[in-house]
Amino acid sequence: MLDGKTVLVTGATSGIGRGVCDALLAAGAAIVAVGRNQEQLDELSRCAPSRVRPVVFDLTEFARYQEVFSPLGQIDGLVYSAGITDNNPLRFFSLDRYQRVVDINQTAPLALVSQLARTGQFNSGASIVLLASILGPTIGMKGTAAYAGTKGALLAFVKVMALELSNKLIRVNSVSPGMVNTPLIANQQQVSNQALQIDRQKYPLGKRYAEVGEVASLVRFLVSGESSFITGANIVVDGGFSIQ
């Protein structure tokens, strides 16, 4: 499906990003895997040594984008999966914590797409997928204004980018998951298992959270030529949670 294609994936070392890498590799793609954890990147590289190019990089180092990304050459796809969450309620608002979330979740994807487009590194027919969320565009949650705002911004970016890059036949779409069973959920200690189980009951389709592979398979579809006439779209993956 993706034989001979090269896809750059950010946030490649864990969670949805790692799942996307696995799905793309299974479809025959080569991966440029960007992350901050050298050990986890090495582990990913061992899965397919000839098709994984690890890049250890902090995406908030904006001044280094030219230096880091230009040597990577041409790519057929970009999946921006890097992101952080941070509880930052209004009464205790921290501008520093807010800026960190914005830098990684919002500024970096815009800067990265701009960098790659400006240097002509996207091949004609390339596909860009931004990982957004139902939190922000669809639902609200106390204490998450910064995170929610960044995810709403990604949906706006997609529409504008899709128009600006259409003359190169480059497609731009976003995927908005609800809760997903990632290691972050499994290892968190702020919410009890009982509370998580109650929350899962709110998801109509199976009373459960999505699995990483269910999100990754949609991303793979959007990267592939099977979605060749889809651009400027946002696809929700939440088991019916947000339609209630």
How would you portray this structure in words?
The strands form two sheets. This protein has a seven-stranded parallel beta sheet, with helices on both faces. A two-stranded parallel ribbon has the order 7-8. The model has no long low-confidence stretch (mean pLDDT 95). The protein has a single domain, classed as 3-Layer(aba) Sandwich (Rossmann fold), CATH 3.40.50.720. With 244 residues, the protein is α/β, with parallel strands linked by helices. Strand 4, helix 4 and strand 5 (122-131) form a beta-alpha-beta unit. It has eight helices and nine strands. The chain has helices at residues 15-26, 38-47, 65-69, 95-118, 145-165, 183-187, 193-200, 212-223, and strands spanning 6-10, 30-35, 52-56, 75-80, 122-131, 171-177, 180-181, 210-211, 234-237. The longest helix is centred in the middle third of the chain and has 24 residues, at 95-118.
Give a concise summary.
The chain is α/β, with parallel strands linked by helices. The protein has helices at residues 15-26, 38-47, 65-69, 95-118, 145-165, 183-187, 193-200, 212-223, and strands spanning 6-10, 30-35, 52-56, 75-80, 122-131, 171-177, 180-181, 210-211, 234-237. It has a single domain, classed as NAD(P)-binding Rossmann-like Domain (Rossmann fold).
Total number of domains: 1
Write down the CATH topology. Answer: Rossmann fold
Oligomeric state of the chains? single chain
Q: In CATH's first tier, which class applies?
A: Alpha Beta
CATH superfamily: NAD(P)-binding Rossmann-like Domain
Order of the strands making up the biggest sheet: 3-2-1-4-5-6-9
Q: Which structural class is indicated by helix and strand composition?
A: alpha/beta
Number of strands: 9
Strand proportion: 15-25%
